[in-house]
C-alpha cells in the first residue's frame, strides 16, 4: 500500500474523530473543518487539504498528487462516514455559502440532532434540518454504488450515475420531484414540534434531480408550493438545492404566497 496515502488517511481519521466524535455540542465553523496535512517520509513528502465534514479532498501535492481516487477509496474503506452523512455536511456548507457569502467560513455552528445543525448569526440561533428528495430504491442503489467498484470516484459522479440510471424508468417513476418535496415538507411539519426551540427554523431538501437546476425550475417549484399551500403555517422556511448542478432557492410563506429569500437574511 502507498505509505503516503495510508498516513494521510490515518491523519484524516484521527482529526475527523477528534472533531466530530468527542465532546457533544462542540462549536465549529467551516474554517475549522478545513484541515491541512503534511506527510514526511525518507523518500520525500506530501501535502494535502481536506474538508473533514464532507471528506472532500481540496488539494493534493507532492507524493499524493494525482492520487485522489485512491485516497477516496481508502476513506470509504475506513468507513469514516456514509454518503448520507457527507451529503448532510455538503448541503449545510452550500447553504452557508449561499446565505452568508461574505462570512460563511467563520459563522459558529453545532452539529446536533433534531435539528441536524444549530448556527448562531447576529445573536440569533437557527435550527437547520436536512432531508433528501429521493426514492427509496434510488437511495439503496446509491448505497450499493458507493461501496462498489465506483466507490473511489467523487460523490458527484456517484450522484450523477444514480440520477442517470434510476431503478425505475422516469416515465414510470412512482413519485415526481414535486411529490417528493411535498412529502418531505409534510413529514417534517410533524417532527419540527419535537425539536429544541430556536429563533428560526429552516428545512433543507436536497434535490439532485434534473428537474431542479435553473431559474425556470425554481419558479415552477415556487408556484407549486404556493398553489398547494404546503408552507402555510409551516414552522420553517424551505431551502431546496441541487448539489450536482448548483440549483438553489430559499422559499418562505408570506401573506398567502411564497417568496424567495435573499442572502444574509435580507428580504
User: pLDDT under 50 segments (min length 5)?
Assistant: 167-174
Q: What percentage of the residues does DSSP assign to strands (E)?
A: 15-25%
Q: Write down the Rg.
A: 20 Å
Number of strands: 11
Oligomer: single chain
Helix/strand layout:
Elements: H1 3-20, E1 27-28, H2 30-33, E2 34-41, E3 44-51, E4 57-62, H3 68-77, H4 83-99, E5 109-111, E6 117-121, E7 124-132, H5 136-146, H6 155-164, H7 177-191, E8 200-206, H8 215-228, E9 237-241, E10 248-254, E11 257-260
Parallel strand pairs: 7-8, 8-9
Antiparallel strand pairs: 1-5, 2-3, 3-4, 5-6, 6-7, 9-10, 10-11
Can you describe what's shown?
There is one protein chain. The protein has 267 residues and is an alpha+beta fold. The protein contains eight helices and eleven strands. It has helices at 3-20, 30-33, 68-77, 83-99, 136-146, 155-164, 177-191, 215-228; strands at 27-28, 34-41, 44-51, 57-62, 109-111, 117-121, 124-132, 200-206, 237-241, 248-254, 257-260. The strands form two sheets. An eight-stranded mixed β-sheet has the order 1-5-6-7-8-9-10-11, sandwiched between helices. Helix 1 (3-20) packs across helix 3 (68-77). The model is unreliable at 167-174 (pLDDT under 50).
Key phrases:
three-stranded antiparallel β-sheet, globular, alpha+beta, single chain, 267 residues, 11 strands
Can you describe this structure in just a few lines?
The protein is an alpha+beta fold and 267 residues long.
